[in-house]
């Protein structure tokens, strides 16, 4: 797997001047983002299919282990405040449970049985969409969840960072963002993680676009929960309805 390979260019990075190391890491991050370009069409197709499945009742399910799981959860939790996506229509399945968000449970990624059981407990159906994320593309927990979800009739999307991965093959929509070797070998929170986060950002936003939750480039369905968001909401009403701020404030 390329994400686990040692890149000879960086074998002595610990001896480099700090600025040289930082510049190399920045170059790697930029390359990771650029790698998503090859998957633009696949992301668009996956987003369209997901929106069509979700309708008014379907659930979005995020699945992952370790770093990939934490990145997946980070994407999903933003959908409620940003688009008022119902919390009951979001499900997070993470190896080791959600406690692994703050305390690493790396051994849990091998527990395929737990993943299958969690998918069964979720009682998924054809209106649900499951997004599995794994840099290696072969994490047993994530693979088992995708296989069980697909067998239950859910739409499955896999995001991996190694070519020819089992995850991309197992999911109905396999997104392979090849980020190559990490500057610190195996540290997939870096290039792979950056690409995963950006891919999820794009995918979930495209789904929300197709669900009608964006109007004229604005998050018109957002939750107003603080003063900053109230001001944002008032500005949206003012601009879209072509009224003054007093009228916009009264409308909210």
TrEMBL record:
Keywords: Carbohydrate metabolism, Lyase
Molecular function terms from GO: carbohydrate derivative binding; carbon-oxygen lyase activity; ether hydrolase activity
Keyword Ribosomal protein: no
InterPro entries: Etherase_MurQ, MURQ/GCKR, SIS_dom, SIS_dom_sf
Cross-referenced Gene3D superfamilies: Glucose-6-phosphate isomerase like protein, domain 1
GO biological process: amino sugar catabolic process; peptidoglycan turnover
Pfam families per UniProt: GKRP_SIS_N (PF22645)
Domain SIS residue range list: 50-213
NCBIfam families for this protein: PRK05441.1 (NF003915)
Name under which the protein is recorded: N-acetylmuramic acid 6-phosphate etherase
